[in-house]
């Protein structure tokens, strides 16, 4: 058994990167601290870039693979929805990301997101199931909606009302923690 920490690549957009926050307040750092408090030796790598869609993520997936992680948390969708990418395009990009990590036998956790209420109802009705459908198709655990942890609570958002503040990131990390611990267990075995 290796004594090296489990390396989890946190791969996503501004919600992963920690937009508007100090680097030590970003989701990967906070999640790593919480997992270590639970006795798990882990290093969470921050592969979040603000503004990225799943397509952008797919374009930079080689850097994540090159880091040789033991597991991956995939968190895209907010920007795809915001720019109105087609449901087919979003699904295809996320599928390609999943299949790339799957080919490497990397355990994954998909972090979903619900379409903003500003989107039209037809788009929202097609967008919201993407993550659950992919999780089911590939038998990957799903954290259904990252927004459910903080969105709409002004004490947990930055002034833009969209991005989590440090307390909002703490709320996300607490929400994701049980599945992140399971992910680490799967990566270890």
Account of the 3D structure:
α2 packs across α9 (166-188). 47% of the residues lie in helices and 13% in strands. The protein has a single domain, classed as 3-Layer(aba) Sandwich (Rossmann fold), CATH 3.40.50.1110. It has 189 residues and is α/β, with parallel strands linked by helices. Strands 2-1-3-4-5 form a 5-stranded parallel beta sheet, sandwiched between helices. The radius of gyration is 15 Å and the shape is globular.
Ends: how far apart?
9 Å
CATH topology: Rossmann fold
The H/E string reads EHHEHHEHHEHHEH
Per CATH, the class reads: Alpha Beta
Query: DSSP helix count?
Result: 9
- Low-confidence segments, given as residue ranges, are none
Which second-level CATH architecture applies? 3-Layer(aba) Sandwich
Number of domains: 1
Helix content: 40-55%
Q: Mean pLDDT, as a whole number? A: 95
Output the radius of gyration.
15 Å
The helix/strand class is alpha/beta
User: What is the fourth-level CATH superfamily?
Assistant: SGNH hydrolase
Biggest sheet strand line-up: 2-1-3-4-5
Number of strands: 5
The outline comes out as globular
Strand content: 5-15%
């Amino acid at each position: 058994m290796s004594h090296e920490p489990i390396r989890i690549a946190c791969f996503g957009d501004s919600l992963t990167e920690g937009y508007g926050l100090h680097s030590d307040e970003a989701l990967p750092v906070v999640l790593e601290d919480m997992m270590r408090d639970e006795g798990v030796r882990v290093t969470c790598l921050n592969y979040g870039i603000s503004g990225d869609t799943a397509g952008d993520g797919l374009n930079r997936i080689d850097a994540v693979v090159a880091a040789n992680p033991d597991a991956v948390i995939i968190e895209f969708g907010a920007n795809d929805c915001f720019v109105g990418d087609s449901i087919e395009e979003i699904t295809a990009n996320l599928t390609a990301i999943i299949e790339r990590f799957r080919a490497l036998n990397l355990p994954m956790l998909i972090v979903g997101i619900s379409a903003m209420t500003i989107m039209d109802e037809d788009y929202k009705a097609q967008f919201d199931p993407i993550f659950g459908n992919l999780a089911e198709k590939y038998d990957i655990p799903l954290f259904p909606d990252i927004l459910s942890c903080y969105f709409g609570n002004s004490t947990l958002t930055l002034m833009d009302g969209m991005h989590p503040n440090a307390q909002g990131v703490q709320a996300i990390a607490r929400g994701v923690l049980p599945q992140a611990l399971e992910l680490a267990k799967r990566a270890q075995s």
